[in-house]
Description:
Blueprint: H1 3-18, H2 22-37, H3 39-53, E1 57-59, E2 66-68, H4 79-90, H5 99-133, H6 147-153, E3 172-174, E4 177-178, H7 200-206, E5 223-224, E6 227-235, E7 239-246, E8 252-259, H8 265-280, E9 289-294, E10 298-304, H9 311-317, H10 322-342, E11 345-346, E12 355-357, E13 363-365, E14 372-373, H11 392-396, H12 404-420, H13 430-439, H14 452-461, H15 472-476, H16 479-482
Parallel strand pairs: 3-9
Antiparallel strand pairs: 1-2, 4-5, 5-6, 6-7, 7-8, 8-10, 9-10, 11-14, 12-13
Amino acid sequence: MNPNKATDNRFNSYFQFIRPSRQQQRQRQQEEQLVQSSPKKKNNNNNNNNNNNNQLHIDTDPLGISYNSNNDDLTGQRQDEYYSDIFRNLNYPHDKPRSSCTLQSKDKQQQQQQQQQQQQQQRRRSSCTQQLLNPPSLSPSPSPSSSSSSTAASPTYGPLSPSLVSRRDIPHSKCQIRKGSFTSPTGSINAKSWEHMKSPAASFLSSFASPIVPPAYEEDGDEIDDYVFDKVIGQGGFSTVRSGYSISDGHKVAVKIIKKSCLNDQTQSRLDRELDIWKSLDHPNLVLIEKILETDHAMYIVCNYCGGGSLLDRVNKKRFSEQEARTVVIQICHALHYLHQEARVCHKDLKLENILLDDSNRIKICDFGLAIYQAPSMFDEVAGGSLAYAAPEQIRSTKPLPSPATDLWSLGVVLYALVTGRLPFQDCYDVRLQQKILDGQFEILPEDNLSNGLKDLLHGLLQVDPHKRYTVQQVLHSSWCSS
């Protein structure tokens, strides 16, 4: 048979199916009249309809056409394949998969969501521009700010100006230790181990298979929240400092671990005060808290990691040149200005061990365990700290003095140690050491080769009378710092 003629016959039969001829209409009308006149035939037709309902039935929504699996066309094909072929030629929509409709609806939903997100972003941008044009009024309460952070982070340090600031919000959550759920291929745990992970999601899912055990001691490779513990880098009376890194992005952190069993009422109150002060600070030359985690056995303070070590480590290797010491002193002064003028806090334990260097050789002051607010109050505790760095007025007092001048004395001791390689006041007997500090007599040797400007600055900082002692502004405007 000619293929063109066969196709024409198929199309003709299709059109006859959906639009019957006049002769067929007349026959149907006659059959309906006979059915109405004969009730028996009506019952038979009902039975036939019931039988047809029991057959396999495929319904197509657009045209309501039914395909019976028992009927075949002239060429031996199934009738459903026969008509579906016709629909493809006619490009009727009901021959297309219904999933495409759902996909189209999903695409429309995604487009609507994208349009909503774009509208929200435009609203945010407009609100931000309004805030920039009309800045909100500043709060009169003194608290830390990020404004000084931007000035101190710049290479050239401009004039200092006090500014009112806002308190930082530090996440504090309760969690559990996961024992060794991830180890690096080399066997050692460090920040580079993060590069070997397939994805943060893989580590998150692997944590579900990790046994959650309350350990007596943390070990290398243990996980808590989004962090992995590395080696111990510091040890204190009731705390341990470990290095570590974040699982989500791989940045290195330091984790201060405080065992709750080692805390009594006095140390607990000190810890609460330290965290209250530390959480409020925000300056590039201070070690800042990133997150506080807590288990039933310990508290974990996640903070900045300083890979350059402390100034004590550097001085033990080689003493600083005046240019190197000048860079350090300027950064310390900006940190002290922030603490004294904006945070209204005295550090009270400024020494070489508590001044760290990050990977970019930027100064970071740490350890706020003895820090106090400058607001007048009654302290029930005894003054603490390192005697070699203590100011004369603090030695005379048994209570911690909330005076910024005590930090400036400690700065003078640090500066002297940087450029000479030794402390200005030394003695193996504490009573004699206290007397030397009270007298304020220190020695500058000829072989130290210090400039006159540096000598004047040291005498201004190590001034026994706190009222005559240099302030932060006087240090920065001294001939030695401005040279």
